[in-house]
Design goal:
- The complex is a heterodimer.
- Chain A is mainly alpha-helical.
- Chain A has 15 helices and four strands.
- A four-stranded mixed sheet of chain A has the order 2-1-3-4, sandwiched between helices.
- The longest helix of chain A is centred in the middle third of the chain and has 39 residues.
- Chain A is elongated, with a radius of gyration of 31 Å.
- A six-stranded mixed sheet of chain B has the order 6-7-8-3-9-10, sandwiched between helices.
- In chain B, helix 4 crosses helix 5, helix 4 runs parallel beside helix 6 and helix 9 crosses helix 10.
- By secondary structure, chain B is of the alpha/beta class.
- The chains are: A mainly alpha, B alpha/beta.
């Protein structure tokens, strides 16, 4: 026990004495997150104002005269509109929409006004709208013309035909939101947080984990450690606990930065990322479950990093070997981004995957006691098994000295 | 004291290593049935060419490698079943074992002292003494990374001796050192011997072995082919100096691999 503490304090000293390490743990995440959100916010803002400023190039064929006059009233900026005659060829215009030179083509059928007034049986006249949804300008023009201008035109015609518009509208729809605020927040957090947390916990321990085990082997400093009269498992535990502390600290820095910075940032540039209104409330049970699962996850991650690092002959080899594991972590996190909480109890017994789905279920308050217990037990058990394997590897001359 | 009985170490070779060594055998016998005893209060030398098995033998004594066959006892403790007791008794130093470059000599001295369970007061005393002797007192707070090669070596020696071990094992103690530093190291080994410690060194430098060692074991191709004081070895080979004796033995015992 005492020797675990000695190894641990040396590993922590290594981390906190190193200026580069301090920078990458405490300062880099802050810069990264603020930088990323500023960039995303500014770009989104620029893109939307660019679309708003853009004058749509619209071709309208065979437009009824009342629609023409409506357009001159509603769209003061109508210099982008070109009206075509009924017999003009529109195929070149469609090609230009594809080539992104023209935003929109609207084709009214022949005798549109007449058929609207007479309206016999199934002969409903169709207005054809050609647009390119993968181009922002075209998509925006389509939305404006269909939802605003053509809709306004339709209402005008309805009023002209029936006088009272409600006679044909029949009913209105009114939506009223009834939901549990805490659960809504949990759901939103639940889709994002497990992914972010697991990723950050893993990345936080990855580079130091490789350095402290594979690096020490490569530099030849491990042998002097193995010459000391302490159990090899104490050395392993000392190193793993140091990694766990580092991993938790870096995850905490990320979470705190996000919680503090994002509301400020989104208020400052008015982007859509508003989470300040969401109330985050956890019950003591939720907090307990979160802590247990997170500690288990950190322990397992660190042990997995350790086992990869101990079998690698060099830092370079360890960095290569760790990649498949890294992808597994990303994949398990991503699997929980969509859909609701997993209810199948058996899935909570699969280490790595279970921690992601459990975090999600805890945040949305869906987890059952059995699911939680299964997650905790299997995660800690898996971590313990891997740790024992690392201890075995530390005792193996083949692994430690390549002999 | 150290008792080695029929020590044999066979490495299994991977396919890559077999290609490198241009051999079709998947094993390599590094040490082949070596036995000797070394008493406290002497300097015992393992003499042999490169690749003879000196380092492997020392690593087996130091508990870093497990013998394939035979046994190694250090002060009565077996290196496999009582490895922790063995490690308390020995200080081991080779060129391949290095100090962590990110730490200062002082920090590492204290760290390894604590790992060996040395009390702080005792630790301070020993650090003062060893650092002063090896001339690293002025550089004790500098990172190992910033020290010169010789200074690194001296710091490593001081750290290896932190727990005042009963038995000191040095793999090529003067390798890579200038003559002045080498002299201070060999002088220190003599001082250790005078204090009743057992010092085991490996070397391929004849003059060093001749001057320093009370007893010698000559190892060629993993086999011990001679053992005794320098005088005894010269008598059995009927030669005038150790270098001639060594060549004589080498000629008689080394067979080219077919």
């Amino acid at each position: 026990m005492k020797s675990i503490k000695i190894v641990l304090s040396k590993e922590l000293y290594r981390i906190f004495k190193d200026k580069k390490m301090i920078f990458s743990i405490f300062i880099l995440p802050v810069i990264l997150i603020i930088g990323m959100f500023t960039l995303v916010g500014t770009m989104a803002k620029n893109a939307s104002s660019d679309v708003q400023k853009h004058v749509s190039t619209v071709y309208i064929q065979n437009a009824p005269s009342d629609f023409k006059s409506l357009m001159s009233v509603v769209d003061t900026n109508s210099n982008g509109i070109t009206f075509l005659n009924a017999n003009d060829d529109t195929s070149s215009i469609q090609t230009d929409i594809l080539k992104e030179k023209i935003d929109l083509l609207i084709v009214f059928p022949d005798n549109f006004s007449k058929s609207v007034i007479e309206l016999a049986g199934s002969n409903l006249p169709s207005v054809l709208v050609y647009y390119n949804p993968s181009v922002d300008y075209s998509a925006s023009a389509e939305s404006t013309y269909v939802n605003s201008y053509l809709e306004a035109y339709r209402q005008n015609l309805l009023v002209a035909k029936y006088g009272n518009i409600n006679a044909v509208k029949l009913f209105d729809v009114q939506q009223s939101i009834v939901q549990d605020e805490a659960k809504a927040t949990g759901k939103m957090l639940g889709s994002l947080v497990p992914y972010l947390i697991t990723l950050v916990l893993f990345i936080g321990a990855m580079s130091l984990g490789i350095d402290t085990i594979a690096g020490e082997k490569e530099r030849g400093t491990m042998a002097s450690l193995l010459m000391t009269p302490v159990k090899r498992t104490s050395i392993v535990m000392g190193k793993l606990i140091a990694l766990m502390i580092l991993s938790v600290i870096s995850a905490a820095v990320y979470v705190i930065t996000m919680v503090v910075a994002i509301p400020i940032m989104s208020k400052a540039n008015g982007s859509g990322m508003d989470i300040s209104g969401l109330s985050i409330k956890f019950t003591p049970m939720q907090i307990f479950e979160l802590v247990v699962v997170m500690v288990g996850v950190v322990f397992l991650y660190v042990a997995l990093i350790g086992i990869v690092a101990v079998y690698a002959k060099s830092v370079k080899e360890a960095s290569t070997f760790i990649m498949p594991l890294y992808f597994v972590i990303i994949a398990t996190g991503m699997m929980t981004m969509y859909g609701s909480s997993v209810t199948n109890v058996g899935l909570y017994a699969i280490p790595l995957y279970n921690s992601s789905i459990a975090l999600k279920a805890i945040l949305s308050g869906d987890i059952t006691l059995i699911q939680f217990a299964l997650t905790a037990i299997s995660t800690f058990a898996a971590a313990a098994v891997v740790t024992v394997c690392i201890g075995k590897a530390f005792n193996s001359e083949k692994v430690m000295f390549n002999a | 004291m150290i008792q080695i009985e029929n020590l044999t170490k066979i490495y299994k070779l991977s396919k890559k290593q077999m290609q490198k060594a241009k051999t079709k055998k998947n094993t390599k016998i590094a040490v082949d049935g070596v036995s000797f005893e070394a008493e406290n209060g002497q300097i015992f030398g393992l003499l042999g060419p490169n690749g003879a098995g000196k380092t492997t033998t020392l690593r087996c004594i130091a508990t870093l490698l497990k013998p394939t066959d035979g046994s190694v006892k250090v002060s009565g403790f077996d290196t496999i079943s009582d490895s922790i007791e063995v490690r308390k008794k020995i200080g081991f130093l080779t060129n391949e074992i290095k100090l962590d470059p990110q730490f200062s000599a002082k920090y590492l001295f204290n760290f390894f002292g604590k790992m060996h369970g040395v009390e702080q007061a005792e630790l301070d005393k020993r650090r003062e003494e060893l650092f002063l002797y090896f001339g690293i007192k002025d550089f004790e707070d500098k990172k190992i990374d910033e020290l010169s090669t010789g200074m690194k070596q001296k710091a490593a020696i001081a750290v290896a001796l932190v727990h005042d071990p009963e038995i000191v094992i040095f793999d090529e103690p003067t390798g890579g050192l200038d003559i002045i530093t080498a002299r201070s190291v060999t002088d220190y080994l003599k001082a250790l011997k005078d204090r009743g410690k057992l010092v085991i060194i490996s070397t391929h430098i004849m003059s060093e072995a001749e001057k320093l060692c009370d007893r010698l074991a000559i190892i060629i191709d993993g086999k011990k082919i001679a053992e005794g004081t320098v005088k005894e070895i010269l008598e059995t080979t009927n030669t005038g100096d150790l270098e001639d004796a060594f060549f004589q033995l080498y000629k008689d015992n080394h067979k080219e691999e077919k």
